[in-house]
Amino acid sequence: VAFEAPKLGLRPVAVTVDHGLQEGSAGIAEQAVDAARSLGLRARVVRVEVKDARGGPEAAARDARYAALRDAAVEEDAAAILVAHTLDDQAETVLLGLARGAGAASLQGMPPASVRDGLALLRPLLAVRRATTRAACAAEGLSPWDDPHNAEHRFARVRVRETVLPVLEAELGPGVAEALARTADQLREDADAFADMIDETIEDIVEHAEAGIAVSVAALAANPAALRHRIIRHVVDSEFGQSLSRAQTLEVARLVTDWRGQGPIDLPGCRALRVGGRIVITARA
Q1: Residue 185 to residue 172: CA distance in whole angstroms
Q2: Hey, is 89 helix, strand or coil?
Q3: What are the angstrom distances between the C-alpha of 113 and each of 66, 126, 127, 129, 148?
Q4: Local structure of 96: helix, strand or coil
Q5: Verdict on whether the full-model pTM lies above 0.85
Q6: Separation CA 198–CA 236 (nearest Å)
Q7: Is 15 helix (H, G, I), strand (E, B) or coil?
Q8: Cβ burial, residue 21 (10 Å; 0-12/13-18/19+)
Q9: CA 61, CA 19: separation in Å to the nearest integer?
Q10: CB 134 within 8 A of CB 142
Q11: I need a surface site. Which of 43, 92, 192, 219 has the fewest CB within 10 A?
Q12: How far is the C-alpha of 106 from the C-alpha of 9, rounded, in Å?
């Protein structure tokens, strides 16, 4: 960024987030700022308070970090936020998604470009191996900071990084990380195609109902299962802000494909019921 941005007329700012989770973190953050300034960048430290959340300390730190980056970007009137996730980070994310078993969506990994809180979030190093970034630092005379948390096996991502991926590489041969990253790319392409199909389909089969929304049974039945299930999940997420598990999605789909007079299905924040030729989904009291 320090090399390319000036040639493009851009004014980058390096933001180091100090989570305050370990002794001496403030000093390490200042070292990062000094390194950025040595490259000619404007640089600043943002300190955050990490409050443990339902998703655990990793999720809490991530939420605090992105909130801090967003706020700093707004203050700087920035057009985009760049973060340095590598191909190795992507492979780890895909494996963690596979372990959760949440379907193709959880295997798409991190997109190279997305919008978060109204700002572009870019990952320009997503096709680059971590070893290459370390070699680049060595070539530039920069000393990377190895976060001690990245060696703590109580974190699932650390276990994937230090145990699972090396075993896969050893047993299956080199190239596992690249294969996982390619899988994420292909699944994101599929998801984008499905999203376009869903947007086109929903306009024709969905209508508003009292305290909720209704979907045509005949139209759902006419679609293949993969699209039908995605429509159901999309409707519940967009209307009620809730994510359905696969089991819950299949139960709603049975109102279409295996209708035997079953009663309403309780879902997170809402309820689904077949009424004539429609699936009516309403908010739960």
Answers
A1: 21
A2: helix
A3: 15, 10, 13, 18, 29
A4: helix
A5: no
A6: 13
A7: strand
A8: middle
A9: 7
A10: no
A11: 192
A12: 37
CA angle 30/36/37 to nearest 5° reads 90
Ordered strands of the 80-82 beta sheet: 80-82, 119-122, 113-116
The model's pLDDT over 28-61, given as tens digits with 9 standing for 90+, comes to: 999 999 999 999 999 999 999 887 766 677 788 8
CA distances from 201 to 87, 125, 222, 226 (A): 35, 36, 11, 13
Cβ(46)–Cβ(17) under 8 Å? yes
**Tokens 């359905």 -> residue:** 244
DSSP 103-163: -GGGGS---SEEEETTEEEE-TTTTS-HHHHHHHHHHHT------GGGG-TTSHHHHIIII
Q: Would you tell me how many other CB atoms lie within 10 Å of the CB of residue 5?
A: 14
Retrieve residue 189's tokens.
């392409």
Runs of H (alpha helix) within the chain = 25-38, 57-75, 87-100, 130-140, 156-159, 165-172, 176-205, 217-222, 225-240, 246-257
SS3 state of residue 265: strand
Which amino acid would we find at residue 57? P
| Calpha distance 255→95 (Å, rounded) | 33
CA distance 97 to 104: 9
Return the amino acid letter for 104: A
Contact 18, 48 (CB under 8 A): yes
Q: What is the DSSP letter of 164?
A: I
Burial 47-86 (b: 16+ CB within 10 A, else e): ebeeeeeeeebeebbeebbbebbbebbeeeebeebbeebb
